[in-house]
């Protein structure tokens, strides 16, 4: 499983294990799955969509950045 952590300046938005995450990258949308290669990407206005065992959740963001390393996806965002 992929561990996801979404952080805004004033709060922890989400932390937990997910199956996949789709992100609004500045050069195009992309999806992160388990065992994804390490990457750092800037994010633009859009929705982060993450899939858990019980369904999908959307988080609207204005901007941010994401880092994937060792099955941990850390996302810092402006909501």
Characterise this structure.
With 79 residues, the protein is an all-beta fold. It is 0% helix and 76% strand. The protein contains no helices and 9 strands. The strands form 2 sheets. The chain has a 5-stranded mixed β-sheet, with no helix packed on it. It is globular, with a radius of gyration of 11 Å. The N and C termini lie far apart (26 Å).
What order do the helices and strands come in, and which of them pair?
Blueprint: E1 2-8, E2 11-18, E3 20-25, E4 28-33, E5 39-43, E6 46-52, E7 55-61, E8 63-69, E9 72-78
Parallel strand pairs: 1-9
Antiparallel strand pairs: 1-2, 3-4, 3-6, 5-8, 6-7, 8-9
Number of helices: 0
Outline type: globular
* End-to-end C-alpha gap: 26 Å
In helices, the fraction of residues equals under 10%
The neighbouring-strand order within the major sheet is 2-1-9-8-5
In terms of structural class, how would the helical and strand content be classed? mainly beta
Order of helices and strands: EEEEEEEEE
Whole-number average pLDDT? 97
Radius of gyration, rounded?
A: 11 Å
Parts with pLDDT < 50 across at least 5 consecutive residues: none
Largest sheet composition:
5 strands, mixed
The count of β-strands is: 9
Query: Per DSSP, what share of the residues sits in E-state strands of 2 or more residues?
Result: over 45%
């Amino acid at each position: 499983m992929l561990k996801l952590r979404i952080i805004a300046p004033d709060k922890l938005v989400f932390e937990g294990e997910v199956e996949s995450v789709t992100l609004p990258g500045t050069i195009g949308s992309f999806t992160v799955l388990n065992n994804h290669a390490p990457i750092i990407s800037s994010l633009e206005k859009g929705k982060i969509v993450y899939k858990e065992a019980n369904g999908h959740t959307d988080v609207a963001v204005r901007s941010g950045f994401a880092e994937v390393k060792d099955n941990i996806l850390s996302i810092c965002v402006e909501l």
